[in-house]
Amino acid sequence: MKKFALLLVATLFTTAVFAQNFNIGARVGSGFQAVGQLHLNDKNYVEGRFGAGWLDSCVTADFTALYNWKICTMNWTDEGTWFFDAGVGVNVGGRENFAYVGVAGMARLGYTFENTPLSLAFDYTPVIGPGFAYWKGYSQGGFRDIGFANIGITCTYNF
C-alpha cells in the first residue's frame, strides 16, 4: 500500500509539472487529502484525492476519483471569480480490519483569485455505500451512513 501511495503522489506531481490546466492542492475537513485536478476543457475536469480520512471511528486511507462539471462562473468582483461545480465518482478506503467503497457525489462553491493562481472552495462530497469489518474469519457489513458527513475546504494552486 505504501508503494502504491508513493507512486500515486509521484504521478500527480509529475503530471503537474508537465501538464497545462492542472491544479494541485490540499483538502481538509472530514480528512486530509492531497488533491489533483486535470482540466479537460472549459466545461469539465477530473479530480483525484488521496490521504487520510477520520469520519469513521478510526483513521483510514481514503481515495476519491471524481468527474466534475463547471456549472456556473460568476464575475461579481474585479478581484476574482466565484464558481459552482458538481460531479460524480467513487470513494474507497480502509485500514487493517475495515474497508469501505461507495458512489460519491460532489457540490463545490469556490472562489478563484485574480492576482494569484489560487482557488479556495467549500465542497460537500456525500458517499453512498457499504462498510465492512473483518477479523479472523469473521466479517460484518452494513450501510456506511457516516459517508453523508464528508465535507471539506479545498485550496488549489492553478498552473
What this model shows, in words?
The two termini are 29 Å apart. The radius of gyration is 17 Å and the shape is elongated. It has 1 helix and 11 strands, in the order H-E-E-E-E-E-E-E-E-E-E-E. The chain is mainly beta and 159 residues long.
Secondary structure blueprint with pairings:
Layout: H1 2-18, E1 22-29, E2 31-39, E3 44-53, E4 60-74, E5 80-95, E6 98-113, E7 118-124, E8 127-128, E9 130-135, E10 138-143, E11 151-158
Antiparallel strand pairs: 1-2, 1-11, 2-3, 3-4, 4-5, 5-6, 6-7, 6-8, 6-9, 7-11, 9-10
Gross morphology: elongated
Spell the H/E element sequence.
HEEEEEEEEEEE
| Arrangement of strands in the largest sheet | 1-2-3-4-5-6-7-11
Question: How many H/I helices?
Answer: 1
Strand content: over 45%
| Main beta sheet strand tally, sense and closure | 8 strands, antiparallel, barrel
Report the strand count. Answer: 11
Rg, please? 17 Å
The proportion of residues forming helix, as a percent range, comes to 10-25%
Low-confidence spans: none
Label the structural class: mainly beta
Alpha-carbon distance between the termini? 29 Å
Mean pLDDT: 89
